[in-house]
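From: lab user (bench 3)
To: helpdesk
Subject: output format question, protein + EPZ

Hello, I'm new to running complex predictions and I'm not sure whether the block I got back is the full result or only part of it. Here's what I submitted:
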Amino acid sequence: MEKIIVRGGKPLQGKIRISGAKNAALPLMCASILTDEPLTLRNLPRLADIDTLQHLLNQHGVSLTLEGSRPEDFGRVLTMKAGNITSTLAPYDIVRRMRATVLVLGPLLARCGEATVSLPGGCAIGTRPIDLHLMALEKLGAKIELTAGYVKAIAPKGGLVGGTINFPTVSVGATENILMAAVLARGETVIENAACEPEIVDLAHCLQAMGAGIDGVGTGRLTVQGVSRLHGATYAVMPDRIETGSYICATAITGGEVELLGARANTMGAVLQAFELAGVVINETVNGILVKCGSRLRGINISTAPYPSFPTDMQAQFMAMLSCAEGASVITESIFENRYMHVPELGRMGADITVRGNTATVRGVAELNGAPVMATDLRASMSLVIAGLAAKGETIINRIYHLDRGYERLEDKLSAVGADIERIGGG
Ligand code: EPZ
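Helpdesk reply: Thanks, we reran it on our side. This is the complete output you should expect:
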């Protein structure tokens, strides 16, 4: 079983190049199903989740050509051509590995009039239902039945019909699924209380480049004029704002100075203000974002919420950073019901954190100590790396397959700015 060893105490200095965003690339890849022409995505990150989705798309009959897969290449180019969808089944053994594969549901329904997609099941951070996805598709005329752990969806004879969807809860995935279904539905679709994360904006811009009619991009109200077909396009995946935030935490906790190349400050929402409140110095540069942190960090209070509020995907990393801050911090996790799995692991390193319900109180300690710890989910595993970079001594992180789902070339990027980090025990 592979592990990562981090020997802490070295301030990070230098430059880190930010990769394409995992949570933008995944829906963008599913959009390839909506046309029989080639869709080319640039700046595709090299991640396990991307590989899993390529495997599923291939099963549907999508042909995939990948350039730039040499280790020294950065930002791969993937061309997908769904000339002929040979299967509308998304099987359990793939969907259970990566929940975002449920994003083929809307595109398959729109393109082929039917889809049979395994229910994704829960994961470490929560039950992760898809009821909002299904409610929205029914509003476009889809007939949905659940049998033996699968969603079977069938469009009306003439195809999906535009409708009005009003989400009771903001859902990134449900907004993406219904947006990709609506672009080929007959007539107008209005999506109220839509998620407006930058990754949704990226998807909408790509769909527009493919010929879709979408208004209100970036707002909570999307209006879609359905078209009969979409054409191919070439689109560059946006930089990963969560990877960016994660490396800001790593720089800050080690008291370093790093420039994040390709980072886009205008996609970061409230998280940049949270960093500044905590005492991190953030400056936009022509190449990205320059992060500096000379003095001791200050404790602050944060509550996770949909964009542009503080993102739940930054909660674990930010908590690790605050565990060494001066004073206390109160963190409220309002999106997922079980996203504090990193707390006992940080506790093993000397962090002083108390969880009551969905609120964690972090009392800053002068120093963390390295220890063997276990990654439990993607962002929790990054919080352990961040803590290890500052901890005295050696931290050994187990179950690092979680990390490989969402952080491209983590050890290379961190070693290049002075971290003492290595991966052991391969094979
Ligand atoms: C996306 O997940 C991201 N994943 C998550 O990132 C991210 O944490 C989440 O959005 C919130 O920002 C991808 O984009 C691949 P939601 P998603 O639907 O779409 C509830 C990471 O670390 N809900 O916005 O699954 C749900 O349980 C991952 O990169 C329903 O009740 O999230 C949650 O409480 C983790 N019914 C809330 O809504 C539904 O049908 C928000 O979930 C759908 C969601």
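A quick orientation on your result: The two ends are 7 Å apart (CA to CA). Let us know if anything else is unclear.
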